[in-house]
Amino acid sequence: MNVLRVIILAVVFCTVWVAPAEADDKIYTIDDAYRAALGGNEIVKIAEEDVIQSESRVDQAWTYLYPRLVAHGAYTHFNETLPPEGGPFLFQPREQYQASLVLTQPLYTGGRTLAALRTAQKMREASSDGLSLTRQDMMLSVAEAYYGVLKAQKAVEISKRSLERMEHHKEIAEREAATRKTKANRSALLRANSLVSQARIALERDAHGLTIAHEKLSLLTKLPKDIQLAEPKQLAPQTESLDDLQQAALKNRDDYATSRINKNIAEENVTIVQGGHYPQLSALAGAQYQDSQPAIFTDATTYYAGLRLTVPIFEGGLMNAEVSEARSRVRQAELSSEFLRKSIEADVQEAYVNLQTVSSVLDTAKLEMDYAKGNYEAVEGLFSEGLLSSLSLIDAEQALTAAERELMNATYDRELAILRLRKSIGMLGKEG
What we know:
The chain has helices spanning 2-24, 30-40, 42-63, 112-179, 183-221, 242-252, 254-275, 318-384, 390-424, and strands at 27-28, 68-77, 95-108, 228-229, 280-293, 300-310. The protein is α+β, with helices and mostly antiparallel strands. The longest helix is centred in the middle third of the chain and has 68 residues, at 112-179.
């Protein structure tokens, strides 16, 4: 019985302690970070609400094309009848009930009703493009934060290796100083102690940078801090020419599509402004009921139907002024679209050149890393045999550490440069 109790307690203990460990050991990918940010970040949620509002504006625009049915009801209590003596020609009763039902259908509004509907539909399309642009901005921010964490982790690892090499060098210097108590050996030991301290400071700074990087990623994604991140697969760079990429950007960029939509909206606004000053025609139909106590001669149930025409005669030049303003906004939208086109082409060119530069730096950094590693191994062997001074070993170690950092930065900078180029052509997150 005691054995069974021990087994049960052991199972409970493992369940309580192992399960959290498994949950904490989950490795998050960059796609997990994307999904978390796109699903819960407030900036994305704000853009999604803009889309919902634009859908409601389309529904509102449709209502102006439909007939309107309005019901009225009233009860009035008067202080006396008129004339006070009453009689067959009573025109103010003591109490009166009124009810009416009116149906109105616009027939002609100068084209502004349909123009308003088209404007609402275009604004809905623009808000969808805005949501897509917000998502791409968020994905790029998440990628920068994600690779920032990976950079910080690599920097900590590099600092740890550097510290281990410096501590190993310090141990050698201590043995030399204990064996041969010369001024040169004492100076080498002091230098080794100083380098160990510098390596520890660098490690502390890199550890702090890793904490800050985790904070930035958690702020965007709402994921737990200090999570484990998977190393993303190496991205394939764009193989198209610069001209092809610029043309693709003008085709795929959501902000450029929105600028063209804004131009169409401005053109529709001209129709809306003009339509407000044209004759307005609508059909009316209704029923009216009136009952009074005591009864008067206007009490009845009346049915009616007809047309209502409103014709502006003189507005003091208001139409010309409003139409002139609306057409100016069209020209303004055209200029904004043209300026954005040039900005997009420059943006793509900058991202393209940056990727070429970073790729070249990465190739050079790989060679530098090979040279630095081979040099350190050679110098370390010669130093252990007493053929080189500690200064040569220190120079080789510092060169190796610098090469490791340069290679690490260039590797992740290239991945980010590819993502920025995809963002510049409007294809980030749309590949799948």
